Each structure stands twice: as structure tokens, then as C-alpha cells.
């Protein structure tokens, strides 16, 4: 067995930063949905799905960060790979909020662009960590 550490420190730091950023992202997106529902004629049948998708995304994010962190720290590729798969779902939802939600504000574009770039970086580091664990 390997006596040296394979778990990725940059990845672990990124999980921590992403966790904090996602709390901000979630609250900001939630606040903007509430704001839009007050300011714009937000159709009720669009409000519920937007809110539901945001909460689903939050659940995915918690799972993704938990599994990713656990997989990285225990140097197991399975949880890390599962975390990577979940990230794909999060990316799709982020793109939804970036492009397809009922009203897209400039702030939506900015926070989703940042989120997508962190997902991209995280995914690259996850693949590298998985490769290190497997080898």
C-alpha cells in the first residue's frame, strides 16, 4: 500500500471554498427569485419550478461536496467518481439558471459563471485525484 498521501490538498481547499460560495449562491439566487416575483409579472407556474430546482441543486451540492470530500480524504475513487457524476447535474441546473429560468438578471449571469468555473476546476482536480488513486 502507498505510504504517501495521494489525497489532493487543492481539491480539499476547493471543496471548502465551493461550500461557502454555494451558500452565497443559494441565498443570492433565492433572494433574486423572490425579488423577480415581486417586481416582474412572474407566472406562478414558473415560480414553483424555479424554486424546486434551486432546492434540488442545493441537495446535489451537499451530496457532491460530501462525497467528493470523503472520497478525497479516504483516497477512494468511488465516492469521488460519484461526486463527479453529481456535478454534471449541478452544471445542468446552473446552466438552467444562467440561460433558461424565467428572468435572467445580470447578477444571475455573474454568479452562475463563477459557479460553473468552480465546477470546471473542481472536476479537473477530481479527475486528477481519481487517476492518482487508481494508479
UniProtKB/TrEMBL annotation:
Organism in which the protein naturally occurs: Corythaeola cristata
| Topology of the protein relative to the lipid bilayer | Multi-pass membrane protein
Name a Pfam family for this protein. Transmemb_17
**The protein's name in its UniProt record:** TMM80 protein
Subcellular localization, as worded in the UniProt entry: Cell projection, Cilium; Membrane
**Can you list the GO cellular component terms from the UniProt entry?**
ciliary transition zone; membrane
Q: Which GO terms describe its biological process?
A: non-motile cilium assembly
Residues annotated as transmembrane: 13-35, 47-67, 79-99, 111-134
Give the UniProt keywords, A-Z.
Cell projection, Membrane, Transmembrane, Transmembrane helix
Keyword RNA-binding found: no
Q: Which InterPro entries match?
A: Uncharacterised_TM-17 (IPR019184)
